[in-house]
Automatic annotation (TrEMBL):
Name this protein carries in UniProt: Anti-sigma factor antagonist
PROSITE patterns referenced in this protein's UniProt entry, alphabetically: STAS
UniProt cross-references to Gene3D superfamilies, sorted A to Z: STAS domain
Matches recorded under SUPFAM superfamilies: SpoIIaa-like (SSF52091)
Residue ranges annotated for the STAS domain, each copy included: 1-109
Amino acid sequence: MLQVEVCDGYVLLKLVGRLDGVTMEVVERSFVDILADGYRHYVIDLSQLDYISSAGLRAMLFMIKKSKAADGRLALCQLKPAVQEIFDLSAFSTIFAIFNCMDEAVAYVLSPTGG
């Protein structure tokens, strides 16, 4: 469901399978724990996420709000077409920095200006 890798200057989170009402609590708790360790910048790899529900979208919103409150940055990358469609239909694609490749997402979160 969630794989975490601490990288140089950011944390890579890989969401696998489904992000829904059942899995969102684990993801949110894990994110709070990582944030408490002092990390501020996050890249979330969604290349292996097959489904996201409205509860999953709320979890994503929770993560971006928490990262911004910590003066950090969060980027999403490699969304599958079905997941991208849900982000587009819900207008969440206007809230998140979304990139096609990992390198662009990493460059965004590590940029001093966020872009």
